[in-house]
Specification:
The complex is a heterodimer of chains A (523) and B (448). By secondary structure, chain A is an alpha+beta fold. Chain A has 19 helices and 22 strands. In chain B, the strands form 3 sheets. Chain B has an 8-stranded mixed β-sheet. The longest helix of chain B has 21 residues. Chain B has 17 helices and 19 strands. The chains are: A alpha+beta (523), B alpha/beta (448).
């Protein structure tokens, strides 16, 4: 974030945006120049670096841009007091001496004092002079510098510019493709308030407690601090209201990842650590089961009224989705509040509560049959979790079956794959198979992977018979080809349905012969 | 039952009860009330005979005070007016008239959790000492790296503003020292985000040039007491003299000055720009962000001004003065840090600026008070509040031209010590715009 006097903006018809530094050849060159200056001035005084920066301004570059870049580089630099003697101690000595010998009003009196100190400290008078204020900002020496590339520098500058503009924001709206746990944790930690709603994507509006009473920039700094976690995502949109400090007018500010993502620095966020070992251990053991459930950490937020819940895990399997929330330390009041919040959601949520850390009697909770609470001590037990998952899955199946049966579908196509059918109706494969097996559509035969119309079956049979009578023998690859040209993918199950058998000679399908058992015998 | 609790600088009220102060907050599904209305809401609920549970306060434990302050008659009068105004309001007294003691007496009177808000870190130190000395109790501090909350706590305006969310419900009484600061757009939120029903503002300079002091009555209470320097000078404050000395620039300085000023003036003439007010000038500065020649003109003017303000002739004059006042305690004021360090190097006088390390600063002021150091040169850090009782001579080498700055700097010299006569000497470069800056300041303060 930059000092506000270095913030350069465009403002037109109620819209405001920072004068971003495009990654143009010219800007990259200026950035490169300044980086080189810092590099070549390691071991020299800060004022020497700033002098060079000043020269760039004199050459006609916007001073706000040049100083802004320099400001960014100061943060990658370590400036240190180069003198071995502590200037504070030295000054104390000198001022005390001054009091004894009297304020020097002539150069001679002054040299006498300095000489006295110099001989006391056994150093030359010039070093005393140099050390006197060696701890002032401009006298510090550039000791270390971590140089960015020109492009990095411009991107960092642009991000800082955006944050500096946000100092004046009164509210911010955003969408993001991930990082939810971090984002909402930051919102809470920064003392902000959010409201979330679904509008195609999850939209979040942010301001602060006192924003209710009047437009205030009070939360601008906190909003600016939140920005990096949002733009760290591959996709995001940000819109803010800016109460522009110089004119007090409200302006709109808007940026989006597809347009501005390439010129803003994306902060690198290491993968979020688990909240606790318990969760990490649970995830590892669950993965080891290799169940058909897909376990995801940090799933997308679940809307609960205007608030969100970000569960620890989501588990998905063919249209069933269950969320898991692990509760470590808790009080009854905390748990009740959590549960009240959970009740506002419309999803299946499994709450796993640490019994050992229970701060209050948990008896009262048993009166809430609606909640799916599992208790644990050292380790989250897998068995009850899986039992719950299976139940949820069965529940989904039953619902899906009911749903399927309620659809009045007339099948007309010759071949219908179960998978495609499941996808089209939005239910699980199992449910599709179960419902069709229970109630097979008239004029169709059920194979392992698809529904095949009887006349199509006949047609395949006819072609196979033709081949057999022509060649005497038919091998599997040819039979498969015939089925496929007729649009049936699972040839083996079709063959089976038609009463053919396959005689394997070795493992090669080339030598596997397709035949009807009765006819073979005749031969 | 209705429940009230504190939420980050505001009060939340659960239950379907509208009060004249609450506003429905759809984000959380509760009524939200400004913290400053805490007393009003409680009064309203009591009057309406509504049962409620108040969980707003989170006060540090009370400690026992032993107040040894004896007030002077005018201080007593100020305090009793404040009590009559339901323990709210602003008292205007000249620097060195003992504002601190009135506030300490008020703390003793209320015997409640108190926050004292001050503009600088040096003032935190000073108030802490006073609290310990006159109330016989340890004092907490928030700001400058410290963060301890006690029954009596001192904080800077900065920390009080930044930490309102966490401090807002911990005090019942707030004292705003140098209360004119409170009227700024950010600091005024301290008044809004804290629940403290009892409030006192103290200042020597109530009016602000931006007129924002008109907000103070709603934030702290009305201006209820005012006394000026002349009413107290002699009896309660040191008598003082003021003189302005015009110093001619050295010939080369005069040339440089005329040259640079010429560049600036001819640019303005060429463009037909007239700079009459501070706003005009602000606009011109914004314009220099886009126009290179305008910026060059501005830089030339700044260099000219610097020549006038920091002139060698002035320093030579100062040297003579320092010789003349060998036995006095001296404060030297400048506008820019550069000049502070020039003077410090030349005369080997301790320099006090915002860059001075905290410990050194503390030690420096201590040594100045004890008499170990006889002079200090400073830019603006000493302008306010810090007490240097027996400083008797002040030199102003350059200033902004604001009346407040002048009054505050004068105030550093006015603390009453028997037999002391304070002298404030302003050294101004002849035939430069600096003369105008100095005149502007004095014109407005002729009444002080």
């Amino acid at each position: 974030m930059l000092p506000t006097d270095l913030l350069a903006v465009f403002k037109r018809k109620g819209v405001i945006w920072p004068r971003y530094a495009k990654l143009s050849a010219e800007n990259l060159e200026v950035a490169g120049n300044i980086v080189e200056t810092y590099k070549s001035h390691v071991g020299e005084k800060k004022k020497a670096v700033k002098e060079f920066v000043g020269e760039l301004e004199d050459r006609g570059f916007d001073y706000r841009f040049v100083r802004g870049l320099s400001f960014m580089l100061d943060r990658r630099s370590i400036f240190k007091c180069a003198e071995s003697i502590n200037p504070v101690d030295l000054r104390r000595k000198i001022f005390q001496a001054t009091e004894k010998l009297g304020l020097p009003t002539t150069p001679e009196q002054r040299s006498r004092i300095i000489a006295a100190i110099a001989s006391e400290l056994k150093m030359p008078a010039e070093r005393v002079e140099e050390s006197l204020y060696a701890d002032l900002e401009s006298e510090l020496v550039l000791e270390k510098f971590d140089p960015p590339s020109s492009e990095e520098l411009l991107k960092e500058y642009n991000l800082s510019l955006t944050q500096t503009l946000l100092f004046d924001s009164t509210e911010l709206n955003f969408t993001a493709s991930g990082n939810w746990q971090r984002i909402f944790f930051a919102i809470k930690k920064l003392g902000l308030i959010y409201e979330a709603y679904q509008d195609g994507k999850l939209q979040v509006k942010i301001d602060g407690p006192a924003s209710l009473f009047k437009l205030t920039r009070r939360y601008g700094t906190a909003i600016a601090k939140l920005l990096p976690v949002i733009v760290a995502n591959p996709e995001w949109t940000v819109e803010a209201k800016i109460l522009w400090r110089y004119t007090n007018e409200i302006c709109r500010f808007q940026i989006e990842s597809w347009k501005h993502g390439s010129i803003l620095k994306k902060p690198h966020l290491p993968e979020a650590p688990y909240d606790s070992l318990v969760e990490e251990d649970f995830a590892a053991r669950f993965e080891a089961l290799r169940s058909s459930w897909l376990l995801r950490r940090e799933p997308e937020p679940v809307l609960a009224g205007k608030q969100v819940i970000i569960p620890d895990f989501s588990l998905e399997r063919e249209g069933s989705k269950v969320y898991i929330e692990v509760v470590g330390f808790w009080t009854l009041e905390y748990l009740m509040r959590k549960i009240e919040k959970l009740k506002k959601t419309s999803v299946a949520m499994l709450v796993i509560v640490n019994e050992d850390l229970a701060c209050e009697k948990i008896a009262g909770l048993e009166e809430h049959p609606r909640l799916n609470i599992i208790y644990y001590r050292d380790q989250i037990p897998l068995a009850p979790v899986i039992r719950y998952l299976e139940e949820a899955f069965r529940g989904t199946q039953v619902e899906q079956s009911k749903f399927l049966k309620s659809l009045s579908i007339v099948f007309t196509e010759p071949v219908i794959s179960y998978e495609e059918f499941a996808a089209r109706t939005g239910v699980s494969l199992e449910a599709v198979k179960a419902v069709l097996a229970e109630n097979p559509p008239k004029g169709y035969v059920l194979t392992a992977k698809s529904l095949v119309r009887k006349d199509k079956l006949k047609q395949v049979e006819k072609k196979i018979e033709e081949q057999i009578s022509q060649k005497g023998k038919l091998f599997l690859p040819e039979a498969t080809k015939i089925a496929e040209t007729e649009g049936v993918e699972d040839a083996t199950s079709i063959l089976e349905a038609l009463g053919y058998k396959i005689a394997w000679h070795g493992i090669s399908p080339e030598k596997a012969e397709v035949f009807k058992p009765d006819r073979k015998q005749i031969k | 039952m209705i429940r009230l609790w504190f939420d980050k600088g505001t009060i939340l009220l659960s239950g379907e009860v509208g009060t004249p102060y609450g506003k429905w907050d759809p984000r959380v599904g509760c009524y939200r009330i400004k913290a400053a209305h805490y007393r009003d809401v409680l009064d309203y609920l009591k009057e309406s005979e509504v049962e409620y549970r108040d969980e707003v306060q989170s006060l540090p434990p009370l400690e026992s005070l032993k107040c040894t302050v004896e007030l002077r008659p005018y201080q007593k009068e100020a305090l009793s007016r404040w009590r009559r105004a339901r323990m709210r309001g602003v008292l205007v007294l000249p620097t060195a008239a003992g504002k601190t003691y009135i506030a300490l007496k008020a703390v003793d009177l209320l015997k409640t959790q108190t926050l004292i808000v001050v503009p600088t870190l040096d003032l935190i130190d000073q108030w802490r000492k006073r609290v310990k000395e006159w109330l016989k109790v340890e004092c907490g501090a928030v700001g400058g790296g410290e963060n301890t909350v006690r029954m009596v706590t001192v904080s800077t305006y900065d920390s009080g503003y930044l930490q309102a969310e966490w401090l807002g419900n911990r005090f019942m009484f707030i004292v705003f020292d140098e209360v004119h600061h409170l009227a700024s757009p950010s600091y005024m939120q301290i008044a809004e985000l804290y629940i403290a029903p009892y409030r006192m503002g103290l200042t020597a300079t109530y009016e602000r040039s931006d007129e924002r002091h008109k907000l103070l009555p709603s934030l702290v209470g009305d201006l209820i007491y005012k006394v000026n320097v002349d009413e107290l000078a002699g009896k309660h404050l040191s008598p003082y003299t003021y003189e302005k000395i015009l110093v001619e620039l050295d010939p080369d300085e005069q040339d440089a000055y005329e040259n640079e000023m010429g560049v600036f003036r001819s640019y303005l003439n060429e463009k037909g720009i007239v700079l009459r007010s501070a706003e005009d000038f602000q606009k011109f500065i914004m314009f220099t962000g886009r126009d290179r020649r305008a910026r060059e003109a501005l830089l030339a003017r700044n260099r000219a001004l610097k020549t006038a303000l920091n002139s060698r002739a002035k320093l030579n004059f100062l040297a003579k003065q320092l010789e003349a006042y060998r036995d006095e305690k001296i404060l030297i004021f400048t506008l820019h840090n550069d000049l502070v360090y020039t003077i410090s190097r030349r005369f080997l006088i301790p320099a006090l600026t915002y860059q001075t390390p905290k410990e050194e600063r503390r030690q420096m002021l201590e040594s100045f008070r004890s008499g170990e150091y006889r002079a200090i040169v400073t830019s603006q850090v000493l302008d306010e509040g810090v007490d240097v009782p027996d400083a008797s001579v002040g030199f102003i080498l350059s200033g902004t031209g604001s009346t407040r700055e002048y009054i505050q700097r004068l105030g550093r010299l006015l603390r009453k010590v028997e037999g002391k006569e304070a002298r404030l000497v302003e050294i101004v470069s002849k035939e430069t715009v600096e003369v105008g800056i100095s005149r502007r300041r004095r014109l407005k303060t002729s009444k002080v």
